[in-house]
Automatic annotation (TrEMBL):
<dbReference type="InterPro" id="IPR036397">
    <property type="entry name" value="RNaseH_sf"/>
</dbReference>
<protein>
    <recommendedName>
        <fullName>3'-5' exonuclease domain-containing protein</fullName>
    </recommendedName>
</protein>
<dbReference type="InterPro" id="IPR002562">
    <property type="entry name" value="3'-5'_exonuclease_dom"/>
</dbReference>
<dbReference type="GO" id="GO:0008408">
    <property type="term" value="F:3'-5' exonuclease activity"/>
</dbReference>
<dbReference type="InterPro" id="IPR012337">
    <property type="entry name" value="RNaseH-like_sf"/>
</dbReference>
<feature type="domain" description="3'-5' exonuclease">
    <location>
        <begin position="354"/>
        <end position="532"/>
    </location>
</feature>
<feature type="region of interest" description="Disordered">
    <location>
        <begin position="550"/>
        <end position="575"/>
    </location>
</feature>
<feature type="compositionally biased region" description="Basic and acidic residues">
    <location>
        <begin position="559"/>
        <end position="575"/>
    </location>
</feature>
<dbReference type="GO" id="GO:0003676">
    <property type="term" value="F:nucleic acid binding"/>
</dbReference>
<dbReference type="GO" id="GO:0006139">
    <property type="term" value="P:nucleobase-containing compound metabolic process"/>
</dbReference>
<dbReference type="Pfam" id="PF01612">
    <property type="entry name" value="DNA_pol_A_exo1"/>
</dbReference>
<dbReference type="InterPro" id="IPR052408">
    <property type="entry name" value="Exonuclease_MUT-7-like"/>
</dbReference>
Amino acid sequence: MSLEERVDIHNKQGKVNQTSTICKHAFSDLKHITPLVFIYLLKECYFHGTFKATKKFRVLQEQVHLVLRNDPQPGPATFFIQCLYVLPIFDLYCEGFSHLIISSLRRFLKLETCSGDSMEAKDLAAQLFLDIVGGSVNHDERIVEKIVEVYDVQLANIDKVMCLNAKNNCRFDNAKEFVEQYIFGLIESQSYMAAVTLLEHFSIHQTGQSFLHRMIESRQLKAADKWATFMGKPMLCILVQEYFGRNMLKNAYDIIQKNNLRHEFPDVYHKYKESTIKKLAEKGCWEVAEARTKSNRQLLEYLVYLAMEAGYSEKVDELCDRYSLEGFLNGKVPEASLLENHYLHLNELVVEGVVWVDEVDALRNATSHFEGCKVVGLDCEWKPNYVKGSKPSKVSIMQIASEKMVFILDLIKLFNDVPDILDDCVTRILQSPRILKLGYNFQCDMKQLAHSYGELECFKHYEMLLDVQNVFKEARGGLSGLAKKILGVGLNKTRRNSNWEQRPLTPNQLEYAAIDAAVLVHIFCHVRNHSQTAEGEKLEWKSCIVSHMDNKKTKKGSRKESSEAETKEEQQQLS
């Protein structure tokens, strides 16, 4: 295997980038290659490569793993110890190449039953450990940790080397005390993972809870978990209690699961499950939350309570019917009714009607209505898909709102029945320069529409768009948060991830969909009539209008082109 054959690296276009040739037999026969020359050649390979650093590392790791079979002298494990002694003189390359050769050796030793020089290499690794700790060889604690692990250096090896060096009396405790002193230094410098790894490797049981507290307070939780696991069940129980006391339920739950401690901490386990279900419900992921209950009645009752609290009546009925929870429902109904006034309702927006559009006449009537409007609000809904790697669902409905009316277009049915008419009608709205279209994070909807209905021209080009979220600085809480900021009350988003492909939609789904489009118009009217918010934030909405946008796939790194200026006539029409 020649260096020349293995170092040529392809660029992104698949062409080979030529590199200078460095001795054809350099890596094919290591009998007469010194560690210094080997590291130099490795550096040249890295220097001339064209991949990014991570890819270079992987390519070189493969190279080093393969050349270990090419008879390095006196043996692969010993040869690499000598390399580690040499590496500090390579300065910037030292740390990366040290990790490189140690990881390659680890892989090599897993595949080879015996490297032929493993016993001698252990003692040399113990000597290297002493030299690094003593300061005569410069490597950091992560390299020390890997050397000890890969070479399986034991206290007996360190004690043997210490005796040979005549630095201490030939007693086993001297090696242990030496290692403990080094580990305590790591703890003081807060290098907890390296300290824990060495404590575990040398079977040194550090007692007391203060060490555990220090790791948790420093947020080095992997080190805390590793150390508690090494110490055994009593320390694991203390760790769970510490996590629970700090309301770190996920961490406590993970320890319980990994170490089969559910019977010791049933309350912690259940509380974590409840917190997970609550977070999913707050995001509107009701189907996922239901799956997480695993049909546990107590958790199902909690999920029903959350649905009642959110005013999601059809979800309450659905869960109670499916799991026979009627008795629980009767005892909790009065509590849920108190929460109906927490969210904005459609009648508060003075909307005169919500029209379902799934046939030609209704579609044409809607188009005629909007062609007489200066401003409309837009939104879309589609069925959530929780399967990783699967394609997103098709956009199911599109809501278009004026100040008084909301039309909800059944895109799936209209596309199947009258695609040409749908294309023409929606084009007259979306591509009209006389109608200002309002959205909230509408680029996401645009992308989804183009993906769902790529055959239609209406979703490939837009005129006069205003993304309302761009008018406000540091907007929090999404559209609901913005509505609360401007109108004084937020939106109930619990139905956001419901099944939008079911027909007919429930009355609550229709209201949810209508509100999302209608509230955009009402927020805009407030913005248009006020120069600043109640907090004194200046509102500049005209400069946020995008008068032209193409919804086409672009190359990575490029931006969608849009005209930056609007004509004075357009601005005057909207004032």
